[in-house]
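PROTEIN DESIGN WORKSHEET
SECTION A - STRUCTURE
LENGTH: 202
TOKENS:
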């Protein structure tokens, strides 16, 4: 799992004290797209891809991609610590389980991102960095680079709302009989309040 924090500071290109590129690993991998350190040392890598539902593993049974995930942006190498900066935009629609009634609910994701990744060997306890005058989230990667699918998966999970509802006025599930109150009135009565709290009512 990637760990993140944000902050301010400056970074410049230079020698790398934390990471040595292994030529046996430094190559473009045959995956969706791999931001390879060796390639990034030569030039910025740009992407404009569409991932069909199921192409990116989300590791959550209650989360499903409904439409192609369109992602466009670029990755560049910067700083003395081999930071990979990934900027872009993604758009898709996801299906989640409503937190109240557990029925499927659609969530639209249409967001820009500006992320920064460092080698895991350089992971600090606390550090701040500024990129182009704006704060950038900082993550950490292992090996010879970073896969685009991993970046997009993380961004989807970060973009999803904390409370996932099928609708704002969702009535949820009856705690007595378990029926979905949005579809029918189950007729169950709320449990009587504890008489010891009646003095505080109102």
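SECTION B - SEQUENCE
RESIDUE ASSIGNMENT:
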């Amino acid at each position: 799992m990637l760990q993140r924090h944000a902050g301010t500071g400056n970074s410049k290109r230079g020698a790398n004290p934390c990471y040595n590129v292994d030529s046996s690993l430094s190559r473009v991998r045959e995956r969706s797209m791999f931001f390879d350190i060796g390639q990034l040392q030569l030039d910025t890598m740009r992407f404009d891809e569409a991932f069909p539902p199921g192409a990116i593993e989300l590791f959550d049974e209650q989360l499903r991609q409904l439409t192609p995930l369109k992602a466009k942006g670029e990755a560049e190498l910067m700083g003395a610590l081999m930071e990979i900066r990934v900027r872009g935009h993604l758009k898709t629609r996801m299906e989640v389980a409503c937190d109240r009634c557990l029925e499927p609910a659609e969530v639209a994701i249409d967001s820009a991102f500006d992320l920064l990744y460092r080698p895991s060997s350089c992971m600090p306890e606390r550090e701040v960095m500024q990129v182009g005058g704006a704060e950038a989230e900082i993550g950490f990667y292992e090996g010879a680079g970073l896969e685009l699918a991993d970046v997009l998966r993380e961004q989807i999970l970060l973009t999803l709302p904390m409370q996932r509802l099928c609708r704002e006025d969702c009535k949820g599930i009856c705690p007595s009989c378990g029926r979905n109150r949005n579809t029918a009135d189950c007729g169950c009565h709320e449990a009587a309040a504890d008489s010891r709290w009646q003095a505080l009512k109102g």
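SECTION C - NOTES
The mean pLDDT is 77.
The two ends are 47 Å apart (CA to CA).
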